[in-house]
Amino acid sequence: MQTLEPLEPTDALTLYLSEKRTEVSDATLYSHKSRLGHFIRWCDERSIDNLNELTGRDIQRYKLWRRDDGDLNAVTLKTQMDTLRVFIRWCESVDGVPMDLSTKVQSPVLTDGENERDVLLDNESAEAILAYLNKYDYASIQHVTLALLWHTMMRRGAARALDLEDYDRENQLLMVRHRPDTGTAIKNKQRGERMVALSEEMCDLLDDWVATQRPAVTDEYGREPLLATVQGRVHGQTIQGYVYAMTRPCVFTGECPEGRDPKTCEAMENGRAASKCPVSVSPHAVRRGSITYWLQRDVPMRVVSDRANVSQDVLDKHYDRRTEREKVEQRRQYLENVL
């Protein structure tokens, strides 16, 4: 018979995150903390102060509460329930909840294609944004960040992990490195380390950023970040803010496709409100759009896969947004040289 030891929800989360910290990237740790924070809040509102008492019925009640309280779609709800299952399984391992309770954490069943994200920054918009920045805000931190994400297909975590010494102007490349001991773990850890080739134009932009705009700062570990503000290394959330802000169409086109008035639009109140724009996109959408663009340009999938640090299977399922017609016409061009 299993003997449970009292475990408060907040204590459980603290212990869980402490253990995970050595296993996952900072971004993943932050995501787990954010998702599970809703569960801790739910427990608090219901005066659940000992997870020993948690039942499968409670888990179901939480699922319905999270779906309705957060107005979540099936994809987001599945992600949050999957994280909760991992957390409950860990609680089982420390005798904090009844054994096999994790098997009662049910995630939504997604239909075909429902878990594939379709939001992306298209090439036309990307070029318009970069042209705007090139003209009105050249070599600013926003300009360099957007150009770097689009040109390299990097995740934001990899971009913020770059140091000045990782930029090799002579050979026109960047070195992406996993350095968890000094605050910049990257997704896929050592498997995510790679050299990324740069164009002459991208190098010119980086040269001008370093020479004229980049603050002469170091981070708390004495490293010199490539993407920096006067406070030090740029934060991942700050990168996200730059992208949301600069992908608002009214900023780079002067017009709103939603018919809103920029003077009264809530997304224009301040920089932190930019994500409220229904058309602005996240850094991941920039990455997805860039990957799709290079695939449309007939760059071999293996090359895109290596550059973006993503497997070809995942690339095909989650990032490639070419239509079936585009794919067949590209294949036709190759076949015409053979048949």
Structural category is: mainly alpha
How would a crystallographer describe the biggest sheet?
3 strands, antiparallel
The CATH class assignment of the largest domain is Mainly Alpha
Tell me which CATH architecture of the largest domain applies here: Orthogonal Bundle
Helix count, DSSP H or I runs of 4 or more residues: 14
Question: Which fold does the CATH topology of the largest domain refer to?
Answer: hpI Integrase, Chain A
Kindly report how far apart the N and C termini lie. 71 Å
Sequence stretches where pLDDT stays below 50 over 5 or more residues: 112-116
Secondary structure elements and pairings:
Blueprint: H1 9-20, H2 26-45, H3 56-69, H4 74-93, H5 123-136, H6 141-152, H7 156-160, E1 167-168, E2 173-176, E3 194-197, H8 200-213, E4 228-229, E5 232-233, H9 236-246, H10 249-253, H11 283-296, H12 301-308, H13 312-319, H14 324-336
Helix pairs in contact: 1-2, 2-4, 5-6, 6-8, 6-11
